[in-house]
Amino acid sequence: xxxxxxxxxxxxxxxxxxxxxxxxxxxxxxxxxxxRQEQSCCGQMHLNTGYPAEALPLIRRQVEVFxxxxxxxxxxxxxxxxxxxxxxxxxxRFGDERLAVAAEAVAARTYELSxxxxxxxGVTDVGGYFPHRVTYHPTxxxxxxxxxxxxxxxxxxxxxGIDLVELPGAESCCGFGGTFAxxxxxxSAAMLADKVAAVAATAASVCSAGDSSCLMHIxxxxxxxxxxxxxxxxxxxxxxxxxxxALV
Amino acid sequence: MTxxxxxxxxxxxxxLRGTESFPAAxxxxxxxxxxxxNLANATSTIRAKRAAVVSEVPDWQQLRAAAAAIKDDVLxxxxxxxxxxEARVTEQGxxxxxxxxxxxxxxxxxxxxxxxxxREVVKVKSMxxxxxxxxxxxxxxGILAYETDLAELIVQLGDDRPSHILVPAIHRNRTEIRDIFxxxxxxxxxxxxxxxxxxxxxxxxxxxxxxxxxxxxxSGANFAIADTxxxxxxxxxxxGRMCLTLPRTLITVMGIEKLLPTFSDLxxxxxxxxxxxTGERMNPYTSMWTGVHPGDGPQEFHLVLLDNGRTAxxxxxxxxxxxxxxxxxxxxxxCPVYERTGGHAYGSVYPGPIGAVLSPQLTGxxxxxxxxxxxxxxxxxxxxxxxxIDIPSMLVHLRGRVNADKAAGHRLPVPEAAGMAAASxxxxxxxxxxxxxxxxxxxxxARLARLSRSRTARRLLPPPLSSxxxxxxxxxxxxxxxxxxxxxxx
Lengths: 248, 490
Prior knowledge:
The structure holds two protein chains of two kinds.
Chain A: E1 2-5, H1 9-14, H2 16-28, E2 32-34, H3 44-49, H4 52-66, E3 71-74, H5 77-93, H6 97-108, E4 110-112, H7 113-120, E5 133-136, H8 140-145, H9 151-157, E6 163-165, H10 180-183, H11 185-202, E7 206-209, H12 212-224, E8 230-233, H13 234-239
Helix pairs in contact in A: 4-6, 5-6, 11-12
Chain B: H1 22-30, H2 33-55, H3 60-76, H4 78-91, E1 95-99, H5 102-116, E2 120-123, H6 127-132, H7 134-140, E3 144-147, H8 150-157, H9 174-184, H10 196-213, E4 216-219, E5 223-225, E6 230-235, H11 239-245, E7 249-255, E8 259-260, H12 266-277, E9 285-290, E10 300-306, H13 310-314, H14 330-334, H15 336-341, H16 352-363, H17 380-384, H18 391-408, H19 415-428, H20 430-442, H21 444-452, H22 465-469, H23 482-489
Parallel strand pairs in B: 1-10, 2-3, 2-4, 4-7, 5-8, 7-10
Antiparallel strand pairs in B: 5-6, 6-9
């Protein structure tokens, strides 16, 4: 299948390993991957902080860039969630019905990575190899906005050598919430402290998730408290093989 | 959208506004370790109970959809349902009063009580009367109001504020309650222990006197049925039943949105409410009354219909679904923010996720500008809401209203708005965005990431960065942006 990668602004600028892993994984599974340099940001930060007028040009751009793609894959539950649940509504709010219809078409072909693998291509065993103890944080928008359910876990369970341990209180928010982490930093930190303690309790060496933003938050806490676990995106674990193992 | 001309809840009366912003109040609450332990215990217990009894109901999602549809019908036709309710109540011997806001409602109730000559009233737990600050208004008129719900009594005796819709004293543990009773409850046994049955018995003994002597009771209402004129209160303790049946005069204060069209609509709501609020299949006491009946129950019944910003809320097509709320408090119990801060941080009697969307709409967003931002948008509230209020989307909408309101009050853009506009501009241009990503990586970011890892250096970082670095390190910047790597591969 021809797959257009939507890297997301955060991954593009700060976590390129995640996008590289997504490309490697999709190619290994036989897909042709393209990356359109015109892409930038889905506008989620603007939308969720209450700046829909500033998000509108970003929505328009995203829809134009990906309009003719067969499948658009993003290594992010929250960016996919913004595209799927906020784009058309925002366009209509500004009276742009044409953009709304185009946005619905793009949203219908935009997938979070685990959705694409399991729902679109019907694969749960991606042939990964990752001999480490891993715990998984399901992330709120993947869980409650996209309803990916246990697709990421099904993918991880099929990885050879993995020691997957359940994260206590997995479904609790890590406290990131975009600009919430800055506007309500004390509450955010209190939530993070509980998440970090839960990760530490698993004795996992890797805490994984399907969203680099949540991982940046959890990773910042793990590093600050020297828990000894690191964060890795789901894509990085799935991309890891015996011949090209991911470094932990 | 026309918000102009719709009166919001007035300031200076009642409890819909805090004295400080949510982040500031939350900081104080977070420093209280006892409060956090009490809240974590209480919310996790009730969460588990709710989840268990909800999972027993196979058509739960259909019930939610039905409840949302019934409430939306009520909100769309509120004008005719309210007039219908007034007619039915009046036909059956009740008197209906219309209160535009808290001040009017307080005046109406105070005058009604004064007309009976009573100096004391007993109260059924009610959010509406907390919202309008009725107890204080009565006190100013020389009338003492006695809360009879155990938790409200604890709050009242402790000269405290409720911190939860259903469990107003959730922030107190039993030892604190024992201490409050010993200090404030007239006639309490000095050897009172903190054993829950002993505490309940002390309250029972104290309240029984009040029930038997009170001439006037004041209640709220969970539901009012438009086509029969029936009012309803659901409760767990039976104190409400005492208040609703023993005194001669009953005054009910009810928000105008608490209507249901027909009696049979209760079938839906009485399945949803107890499971969502207390985690019970059925609540112990359901009291209903229709007008007055000679020789049976109160001989005088007044219904005060309260607006206090509800019509203004109704005017916002993206915010009005907040008026579906049946005050079950399930959203509070699952909210990770509420669980850490408790209810007082929200400033309003309506805390948690529903408070964050309801309070700013009742008061107007200018008076509660920090509440719509008091959420990570994790969505747990929407999942449990029995009337399917999409609270996360509503929070996002209200954030937009807050920002627009701030912009309207400033000639220059506020820094955040300027930053957002600049980011939007930068992200729109392929070259400038690629350049910016590269520049951030090569320039300051690496240094900032290093500083964030040093205990002494990070103290020097400016806001808003310091809000991040006070409890989290920054990620190390990569050697290359993804788009540059991709371009190189070709």
